[in-house]
Amino acid sequence: MTYGDFVAVERASFSVRAGECVAIIGPNGNGKSSIALAIAGLVSRSGKVEVDGVLAPARNPAWMAARGLSLVPERRQLFAGLPVVDNILLGCYSWTKNLRKARASDAFSEAVDLFPELQPRLKQLAGTLSGGQQQMVALARGLAARPKILVIDEPCLGLAEIVARRMYEAFKHLNESGRTIILIEENPLRALAITKRALRVERGILDERVDGRLAEHLAEAASLEVNPS
Amino acid sequence: MTTFGDLFLAGLSTGAIYAVFALCFTMLFRTSAVLNLAVGDFAMLGAMGVDFLYRVESWPLAVAIIFDLAMIGLFAFVYDLAVLRTALEGSRAREAILVLFFFTFSLSLFIEGLAQHMFGTNVVSAPPLWNGPSLQFWGLDLQRPAVLLIGLAILTGGGFAAYLRFSLNGKAMAACGDNALGARICGIRQPSFRRGMFVAMAILAGVFGIVESPMTGYVFNSGGSLSLLGLISAAFAGFVKPVRAVAAGLLIGIAEAMLGGYVSSQYQDTLLFTVLVAAILIRPQILGNLNPAN
User: Fold this and answer.
1) ipTM, 2 dp
2) Nearest chain B residue (CA) to A97
3) Is B178 within 8 Å of A145 when comparing Cβ atoms?
4) What does the alpha-carbon distance between residue A73 and residue A49 come to, in Å, rounded to a whole number?
5) Is A152 left (phi over 0), alpha (psi -120 to 50) or beta?
6) Which domains does chain A show, CATH number per domain?
7) How far apart are CA A181 and CA A108, in angstroms?
8) Partners of B218 in the beta sheet?
């Protein structure tokens, strides 16, 4: 994966089982978010991505969304000028173009019910919400897409600890209800709350063969801190 | 009272012209952030094309209108595929508004040249779609094409507003203009919406040209000034809400007529633009999306 001449991700090879929750960790600027964008088909890439054994076309986010992969992106990418309810309804667009059907769907109800604090704000413009509330809307929008796989990129960036904990409770609930979760997280300690499996990205390389358990990564990180050499 | 009423109706007729063009600008901008400066030229093609096919080539009027509008739609479709797609998609994407200005301004000049070559330099008009003497409203006269024009502005403005509000496709279209990346994440195919809206607005402008031309007549370079008036009205609607675009167009038309009638017909345009600039200075939020504060 490249941006012009800059190689953001040189190699990324891994697989995720249905229903699993896996964290992609690593320092900032090493290619974690680029991997998320490439999986979702939002940027050009070489190599291949498969969903349920079916080869995904490159640069085709609509195909990915229709196959049940939903991205909750870094910095949320909400529709700031539209009400919260429309933002969530647009999550349904990957499986229906019918507003009435979307509104009456279980997916929409589940998305709205996930964060009861959004209920009184459904008619409010998304751009006027706080950062934490916007993150809730982004996750609700992703959930309205009836996802089999949720790719969640840096969900707690800039959020207060109490809101971050609230988000992680929701991830745990979604994973327990059968959704596969790929969580991009800078903070491995936080990821430990919902998964034991972590894939580390370093200088644009992610290799499943050096995959490890989060605790090992944490121990490794701690030893590096104690002995910086 | 009669003077006020006459001025009001005259302003409403002129305002309907601004309103339809403001609508064309607003809907396309809302979908793709593209300002189509050639929209007035599509109106000119509508009027002059029908005149040519009906009067010069002696085609039946209905066939001439359908063929003319189909050609306008096809032309807009090909232009989007050949130019806008290259400009807005893929690795050569240029999202700067000034670059897009250049593309649609070039299209405007191209259409003018084409029209001059095909239709000549005379002032012409499509035949009136609704013949007969002026209609009377409380003792005031209103030309039948003006009634059609005002009806077209209100119907299309209301129709688009309903589409945006009551359909998921309409909401998806609004989402494209709000956040293109967010729209792609939701699986919305933004280029298809942009192409559809570019073609639809070209055809709407063509219909408008056919309806309106019996009142004013068109020449090959009439499009530029119409586009400018639509752009100004759309700016006052913040390029966001179709009903607001229609209302802004109608109000500006009425203000122009009143200033011309009560203050000075000679300096009508100068006064109008002075009022518009003052309005922006006093309430910058009028500009909505264009206000840098947003």
Assistant:
1) 0.90
2) B168
3) no
4) 18
5) beta
6) 1-68+148-229 (3.40.50.300), 78-146 (no CATH)
7) 19
8) B124
- Interface contact B174, partner A, CB < 8 A: yes
**Full residue range of the structural domain in which residue B225 is found:** 2-119+183-290
- What confidence tens digit (pLDDT) does each residue in B28-61 have? 988 887 888 999 999 999 999 999 999 999 999 9
Chain A hits for B185, CB-CB cut-off 8 Å, are 40, 42, 61, 65, 71, 73, 77
Q: Which residues, 6+ apart, have CB-to-CB distance to A211 below 8 Å? A: A14, A197, A198, A199, A200
Asked, for residue B104, whether it belongs to a domain, the answer is: yes
Asked if the structure places residue B219 within a domain, the reply is yes
Strands A50-51 and A205-207, how do they pair? unpaired
Decide if A154 is catalytic. Answer: yes
**pLDDT (tens digit, 0 to 9) for every residue of chain A, 229 residues total?**
777 778 788 888 999 999 999 999 888 888 999 999 999 999 888 889 999 999 999 889 999 999 999 999 998 999 999 999 999 999 999 999 999 999 999 999 999 999 999 999 999 999 999 999 999 999 999 999 999 999 999 999 888 889 999 999 999 999 999 999 999 998 888 887 888 888 888 888 887 655 556 666 666 655 554 444 4
| Residues in chain B closer than 8 A to A128 (CB atoms) | none
Q: Residue A152 is which amino acid?
A: I
The domain tally of chain B equals 1
Query: Which residues in A have their CB inside 8 Å of a CB on B?
Result: 40, 42, 44, 61-62, 64-66, 71, 73, 77-82, 86, 89-94, 96-99, 102, 141, 145
Task: Confirm whether B226 is domain-assigned.
Answer: yes
**CA of A9 vs chain B CAs: smallest distance (Å):** 18
Q: Is residue B129 part of a domain?
A: no
Q: What DSSP line would sit under A106-142, residue for residue? A: HHHHHHHHH-GGGGGGTTSBGGGS-HHHHHHHHHHHH
Neighbours of A89 (CB within 10 A): 26
Residue A84 has φ and ψ, to the nearest 5°, of -55, -45
Active-site position among A10, A117, A154, A202: A154
Compute the mean pLDDT over every residue in chain B, rounded to the nearest whole number: 87
Q: What pLDDT digit, counting tens, does each position of B248-267 carry?
A: 899 989 988 898 888 887 77
Q: What letter would DSSP give residue A11?
A: E
Closest CA to A194 of A22, A15, A17, A16: A22
Taking residue A146's Cβ as centre, other Cβ atoms within 10 Å add up to 20
Spatial neighbors of B47 by CB under 8 A, at least 6 apart, are B124, B125, B126, B209, B210, B212, B213, B218
Q: Does B293 touch chain A (CB under 8 A)?
A: no
